[in-house]
Every structure is written in structure tokens, then in C-alpha cells.
Amino acid sequence: MGCLTDDLPLLELLCAADEVRIPGELKSSFPHENAPDAVTDTYVVDGGRLLLTLWHGRLHEVIYRTPAESVEDASRRNDRLFAHYGQGDGWTEILDNGFGRTYRRTDQQRYALWSYAMDITTFGTMGFHQVKW
């Protein structure tokens, strides 16, 4: 049995900003509070919201605010997202702070965050991660 999070859009990090296609409605677009020259666009999609951060003309971060209805649905959604953004590489858990988990892709080119407390999943480039924090 499927759920809304089974059909979430899968995007390509580092694709050109004009190539990003979201099957949803743009709700807002704001400058990123910590990264010069970055803009975060918020889209409403089936299952919740996507926040896309565009920096230097490319997609550098995708935040899935798409809460699942059950632990099983969250696990299935995350398996799908981590497989896509892993692009054949695995993920190593770096930290579990009691609120969420931080991961690095084995090639150290991507990061992921999963807030199990809020059920928000983030994927991004390490170049952007270093600027935003």
C-alpha cells in the first residue's frame, strides 16, 4: 500500500537552477539567512513541502518537509531518498544528537540530515554545507 511520500520528487543536486522541475506550487522565495548569494524556494507538493536552495546558479540543498504517517512509511521514504541522493555510494552516520542524525556520503561530497523528532530529511552538497554553517 502506497502513501503520499512514495511519489516525492527526486532532484539532481548541482543541476542548473533553470533545469529544476518541481511538480508543485511555489509558495515563497527568500534569500538564505546564512549563505551569501543563496535563495531558498519553498514548494507545496503532495505529502508536504520541499525547500530548494539554489546557490551560484545550481541546486545545492533539498529539504523534504514531508512527514510520514507511520514509522514504516518514514523508513520506506528515507530508503528511497538516501538511495537516490547516494547515487551508488553508501552513507555513514556521523552523529545522533537525540533529535536527528547526520550522515556523510562515503565519497564525502554530500551530506544528509534526518530529524526523526520532526521527520524532516535534508540532502546537500558539502560545498554548500561549509558555507551555510
Structure description:
- The chain is of the alpha+beta class and 133 residues long.
- The protein contains 2 helices and 8 strands.
- It has an 8-stranded antiparallel β-sheet with strand order 1-2-3-4-8-7-6-5.
- Strand 2 and strand 3 (48-55) form a beta hairpin.
- The longest helix has 16 residues, at 71-86.
- It is globular and about 35 Å long.
- The termini are far apart.
- The mean pLDDT is 92.
Q: Assign the structural class, choosing from mainly alpha, mainly beta, alpha/beta, alpha+beta, or little secondary structure.
A: alpha+beta
Shape assignment:
globular
**DSSP, total strands:** 8
- What is the terminal separation in angstroms? 39 Å
With strands numbered from the N-terminus, the spatial order across the biggest sheet is: 1-2-3-4-8-7-6-5
Task: Count the DSSP helices.
Answer: 2
H/E element sequence: EEEEHEEEEH
Summarize the structure.
The protein is an alpha+beta fold and 133 residues long. The chain has helices at residues 71-86, 126-132; strands at 25-31, 38-45, 48-55, 58-65, 91-96, 101-105, 110-115, 120-125.
